[in-house]
Design a protein that fits this description.
Elements (H helix, E strand, L loop, with lengths): L6 H12 L5 H20 L9 H13 L4 H20 L26 H10 L5 H16 L3 H5 L6 E2 L4 E5 L5 E5 L2 H10 L5 H4 L24 H14 L8 H14 L4 H8 L4 H5 L6 H11 L11
Helix pairs in contact: 1-2, 3-4, 6-8, 6-11
Length: 311
């Protein structure tokens, strides 16, 4: 808990919230990273606040040796940089040991997109007319159709849906908003979910929390769907078709972008759909595998035909 953290860390987290206006999720991530670092240094009888550059390098290497993903190690390094810069600015420390900390990049690795046939298999497997089946089908269709983040999905309110024009208002990172089309099949799934047989059947006699009544997606208990519940329902539905090891909300987002670009969608349109601030982020999705590249060249390039076809 935060009260068990050193005063410098508690003050830093408070500064992030009040002065920098960071979101609760961001502050929670900083807290977890710093708690992990404090524990590791404490187990070695060392003080994180007094760490040297070499100490921090060893710690980050230790995280990698434990099998943490490069993106997680990169995030931990970023947290440490923010923390020590704060200590210097507040004159709680004279030097910044992260100034010479080796650059650590999370790389451009992305989750592997599902094939179109795998998406179809997953969606077609969610059958039935009970409320949870209608909800789960709508969640899956919505994530794949819009490329929405899981946080955008669970934060969705009924007033955000424009059913007449097939549009939805999504609230992304940093409070940025965007309006995106829902798509015919996703809109059809939403229609069934929002009926009395779907959402209406899960509507409680009395709402438990403020904001639940306005939520598009509800749990079986009639409360707003949570991130954890979305991951759980995706795992449950994916397990039926053998995709539980690879499916997540971000995989559906990545699949949406990849399939659009493969079909010829303009990268700037996809950028707008996904809510990326920089087009460079969207361009990461434009990478194609060698087999697809070979196929395109053989079909389209005047001198790209395979030598096998010339025999």
């Amino acid at each position: 808990m935060e009260r068990d953290l050193p005063p410098s860390v508690t003050t830093f987290l408070g500064w992030l919230a009040v002065e920098k206006g960071r979101s609760a999720n961001t502050i929670s991530a900083y807290r977890r990273d710093l708690t992990t670092a404090l524990t590791a240094f404490g187990e070695n009888g060392e003080n994180l606040e007094a760490a040297s550059t070499a100490d921090l390098e060893r710690y980050l290497e230790h995280l990698g040796a434990l099998g943490q993903a490069p993106s997680s190690v990169s995030r931990a390094a970023s947290t440490l940089r923010g923390y020590f810069r704060f200590l210097v600015d507040e004159e709680l420390r004279r030097d910044d040991p992260t100034a010479d900390l080796g650059a650590r990049r999370s790389g451009t690795a992305l989750p592997k997109a599902l094939r179109v046939d795998q998406i179809s298999l997953l969606l077609d497997s969610v059958s039935g007319q009970d409320p949870l089946a209608l909800r789960d089908r709508a969640v899956l269709e919505f994530l794949y159709a819009t490329g929405a983040r899981v946080g955008e999905l669970v934060g969705l309110n009924l007033v955000d849906l424009d059913r007449s024009d097939g549009l939805v208002l999504l609230r992304g990172k940093g409070g940025r908003e965007r309006i995106v089309p829902v798509g015919r099949l996703a809109d059809h799934a939403l229609e069934h979910w929002l009926s009395e047989a779907g959402r209406g059947a899960l509507r409680p006699a009395m709402w438990k929390h403020r904001g639940d009544e306005s939520a598009v997606f509800l749990t079986h208990a009639g409360t707003r769907l949570t991130r954890q519940a979305v991951f759980a329902l995706l795992h449950r539905r994916a397990k039926v078709v053998g995709l539980d090891a690879v499916l997540s909300p971000h995989v559906l987002r990545h699949s949406c972008a990849t399939h659009l670009l493969a079909a010829g969608a303009d990268v700037r349109v996809v950028q707008e759909l996904l809510g990326h601030r920089s087009i460079a982020t969207t361009q990461r999705y434009t990478k194609v595998d060698t087999a697809q590249l070979r196929l395109v060249i053989e079909r389209a390039h005047p001198r790209g035909q395979s030598h096998r076809s010339a025999i």
